[in-house]
User: Fold these one by one.
Assistant:
Number 1:
Amino acid sequence: MIAVLATTVLLLVLAGCVEDGSTDTTEPVTETTQPAPDTTAASPGTTEPMDIPDEIVIGNPIALSGPNNAGASLTQIPSYDLWVADVNAAGGIYVEEYDTSLPVRIERVDDTSDVGTAVQLTQQMIADENIDFIFPPWGTAFNFAIAQDISDAQTPVIGCTVGSRELVENSAQYPYFYTLLNQYVDQGDALVELLADLGVTTVAIVHHDDLFGIDFNDYVGPALVEAGIEIVFEETYPLGTEDLSQTLRAAQDANPDAFLAFSYPDETFLLTGQAIEIGFNPDLFMASVGVAFPPYRDAFGPAAEGIVGTGAWNPGVDTPDAQGFLDRHVEMHGAEPDRWAAAACYSTGQVLQQAIEAAGTLDPVAVKEAMDTTEFTTILGTLRFENQLNPVYLGQIGQWQNGEFEIISPTEDRTADPVFPKPPWPEG
């Protein structure tokens, strides 16, 4: 019943963000401090009139329905829309080529949580001359699936919900694909160091059979062994699994100090709810995507206290406008942003804007060159891409403490010491 209740709460919360099956188009804010662009201006060095676009259009194939909608509706969609509102309220993006500022609009289409559909929509958007840039779909496998197409088409795309060994190790093969999210290598190293610091000696691991879970497990498993931490139970499960109680009981029988799940949101909620039902309460309980969602905290209430998640962001970090981002998100959407990838997704827009302004044009090749050479100021901090990857992310591991998702990674950016062992599940 707890698992069902948690899933129901998640779906109700998400219903207020994006309605499944709908097509959501973000219109530019009409209030602007800039005059309307002069569409009769002359091209530089000529007397010929130059066509000036009315707006910058960003295509966004993304899950408005299906299982990926949970993550998309709490990470990418609200953050993208907030960035559009902020940019347009400030007058748009200045494009030197046109000597004017242009408003931004997102043209969003449902990929139905199907990777083939996401690829097809991306290809259509690449070919559409009315679409200037593309924001990617949600999830590692989906981002990886479009990386080759956008690189072949020389259209720069910035991922904010992707962690992939293939993209990290072979970034040169996908020169137009960038990512702002911290990768499984950094999170995995921080996780293993944290477990060792806490004196954990045995772990149980479960993960889904998608690219994210496989990559994470393949990296963390050997690192745990090298650190002298014994893996006493390990199991893989398929995406879409609706009952993991038997897996949890088997993990419970192994009596580990820590339980680690490399999971997506639906599984994260399911695993937590069913662990509470069967009374599986290890000293450290960790899941991946979904733990940092405020609806996770709200769904489980006091039971969320002490639960650990991979990837973390906290409004108390020392970066420009961190608290302002959270405040405006709440004002616009009536809900808090997720405490991991939402900040990266908002920063996607900040990077794109600054790259366009540095390039002085909407030409995608010139914008890509600016991405490679510009230092960007974002709510994640000041960053410069290295092999299309962002080396700056303050939170690798987080934990719910007193209603806030604190950064507990063993670094100077830690916002709180870890609670260990976690409190027992509340009775009743």
Note: The chain has 14 helices and 17 strands.
Number 2:
Amino acid sequence: MNKRQPELPPGYHLLCYDSIGSTNDEAKHLARDGAEEGTLVWALEQTAGRGRRGRGWISPRGNLYLSLVLRPDCPPGRAAQLGFIAALAVGDALRAILPRTERLTYKWPNDVLIDGRKIAGVLLESETVGSEEPSFIVVGVGVNLTVSPHGMEIPATSIMEEGLGEVMPEAMLEQFAAHFRSWSTRWRAEGFAPVRAAWLAAAAIVRGEPIRVRLESRVLCGRLLDLDHQGNLVLDYAGECRRITAGEVFPAA
């Protein structure tokens, strides 16, 4: 890799790849072999990148692709909150770099949007061995810096396509790592409350708006009521309060 080596805060162990199939797959392989918390896999290009539910994710050079190994020692529900932390870290990193970010919002559970178009996504994967608590969590992050995929169900964009200038992957990586460490440290000390407050302050869909929530086997249409204190989506569905732990959210048709 010819790029300059990023300068990361203490606690990270950076592994750099020019091209790799999937940073998440490599991070999981390393975690199974005992890689310590803070192991961070960074690639300039992915040849087999993927998003949620196994969807393929085009990953050309110029964007940021990373996966971080964590061992949070907590129940799965709390571990899932790391997705919100990663989204906030992306948002804060972009705010530190870009000239203007007033159009930056968060989409449940862990996408980052600019002007309603997806600029970054987070993929959490975990494995549990012999107990209910995950033995490790891999936090995968992709940020569209120069190019974005076309024909997506949720329209995508990039920093360059938005006319916000050129951002080098290593600069974005440095900022993300710093802000992720800050948010994760605060989360461990104070719980989910400050994470929830910051996320809600820039939520793409505000309380009371009609939304569609796609689950594994059905679609629910209702009004967004809240993000609860565990990170679940609270939906008013036909007068019934439903808590959604996993799904995909879209504006009402």
Note: The first helix runs from residue 23 to 32.
Number 3:
Amino acid sequence: MTERLYEDNSQLPTMQAQVLGSGPQGVVLDRTVFYARGGGQPGDVGVLRWDGGEMAVADTIKGDAATILHVPAVGAELPPIGAVVRGEVDWDRRHRLMRMHTAMHLLCSLIKGAAVTGGAVGAERSRLDFDLPNPPPKEAVEAGLNALIEADHPVHMEWVDEAVLDTNPELVRTLSVQPPRGTGRLRLVRIGPAEAPVDLQPCGGTHVARTGEIGRIAVLKIENKGKQNRRIIIAPVEAG
């Protein structure tokens, strides 16, 4: 399996690893900081370098048996099996995705009691879909979101026994993506203090260390996507 360094520390932009498998479908490493696409968040891109060569990583996806595939760009040279490589994530893109993903958790905390029916994290804009017949005004959502950002709440990752989902099923807000089970462990993302979290839910994605890193967010629109399905689209103000 591939050790997922980003699960315990989203702030790592580089790593050193050994090549376990190498082919046109992807390069398997023993450890990685590259996030594998999933849960609505895109896979990381970047580069792998080794003595005598380098490979542009065009995407990162999940492989078989808990491995992660670093997908080579078209025509890229592949590292030999056994080689030691240095991996470097496209940090500007990754950090924008981290900011947006954490902003989506804050958005989820504002829309209380409504299940999330879908979502997608993007570097330029992101969306969450809610089972919600009567959404609040766009201006109110934007004001509430930016107030939580400006409060600069800490963001923590913690591991708990997956049985917590049996005793506390309301932790799961998403209908479209369920937390993986079977390993005995569950990763929770908590925003705010432990005694009174702003948001607490299972998540395998990457996040900023504090909400203040997100920067100001605009709510671009709230769309009607069905009888009770409302889509809220957000974007960083600079990408507006």
Note: The CA atoms of residues 205 and 223 lie 25 Å apart.
